[in-house]
Amino acid sequence: MKNDLLDLGSHIIQQAEKLGATQSEVYLESSRILEVKMEKGHIKLASEKLDVGCGIRTIVGKQIGVSYITSLLQGNLDQAVQDSIKAANASVPDPDFSSLASSDSAYPTVIGIFDKSLAQLSCEEAVDMMTRGVQASYEVSGELRNMVEGDFTSKSITRVVVNSLGINEASLETQAELTVYSAIGSGEDRCSSGDYQNTRTLREIDPEKIGMSSAQKALRLRGAKSIASGDMPLILTPSALRAVLGFGFAEALDARQVQDGESYLVDSIGSEIASTELEIVDNALLPGAIGSRPFDAEGTPSQNTPLIVSGVLRNYLHDSYSSSKTGVKNTSNAFRSSYRVIPRIKASNLIVRPGTTTLDDMISEMTEGVLCVDTFDRPNMVTGELSAMIMEGFLIKKGEVKHALKSTLFGITMQDLLKRATMIGSDVESRGSVLSPSILIDSVKITSG
Questions:
Q1: Domain span at residue 158?
Q2: Predicted TM-score (pTM) of this structure
Q3: d(C-alpha 149, C-alpha 42), whole Å
Q4: Which tens digits make up the pLDDT trace of 43-101?
Q5: C-alpha distance from residue 47 to each of 132, 197, 251, 338 (Å)
Q6: Are 198 and 290 in the same domain?
């Protein structure tokens, strides 16, 4: 399949050149996808599908045309090339466009991103894993009413990028995500939570652990109370930091957003934007991580990019467009969620260097504060203002976790959050493409009730 896709890519490039393209790029993808959904303990969906397609970008001068097609038949691909050329000829020239990606660097070997066992997983095996995860939740909740839902998705993906500037690369990747959501009790006593696991390999999937954790987290939320509002310290766990850093910080590093003045980190390179305790990198080479890959969505070799070093911002995240616009090095952060969309900038694996303090020590040393286990809110990307609902959180008093919180949120700007990160934990967890320990923010505004 890989070689066939590479040959198709080369053919499309030749066709685009014949039709007058100055430059052209082809992104081909073939994915085998298993999906299982459970509701109220019963299978709602179990499916296996093959998704294949091609995204094409053609350049005529500084005019850019795009098209995509959900077919790899030669005639359909030729028509898609013609459509892209027509779109380019009809578009307004982009004065900031310089060139598609090119590279004379060696491509890295990234281990642990393809697992044959996961690629060959059957639908029956996927249903069995989902069932085990749901059953584990029931075992924890016992006789209590428990409305359990679950999702499992696995993908085996062949990616190919070919362009007219010499890019000609292919990769094989697998990934899976298993989620269990538990809603325990009824009426005012009803509490709900979930847990999930992202992985590249079949052997790492642990349905029982996720199912048990889902129910245990829900039960810990029983008896939730509001608290007095005010300024106090806040501990953000890795689950909460997936949203706060994975979206709130990483998206502010998008060089296109910065160039358009739509980021709170405009003109911040070389500035001390964070606590000197905070060190963050974007590493696409980390073995087995969800965001790892040998090349980005434009075919640029992947790399490890320092972002915050001793509190100082060192780099924005770039693709070929943003890097050529300002004459800086491409950080290989072009990303496509599918061949159906054009590339955008996205972090690969956002990694926070751990400290030496345990989460238990952070809690035991706190006179009064809040532990935020989960939040899904994002900041205003222009101002950095963040008002985040604490979806799962607890009051800490005299070094002990007292009770769960309800109707409570925290407010702070991302600028202050980064600078007030006074303690970095040692409890590293992988949550999606963010690998982080817990972080103590010395003061935030808590609003409750």
A1: 2-219
A2: 0.94
A3: 9
A4: 999 999 999 999 999 999 999 999 999 999 989 999 999 999 999 999 999 999 999 99
A5: 18, 20, 33, 19
A6: no
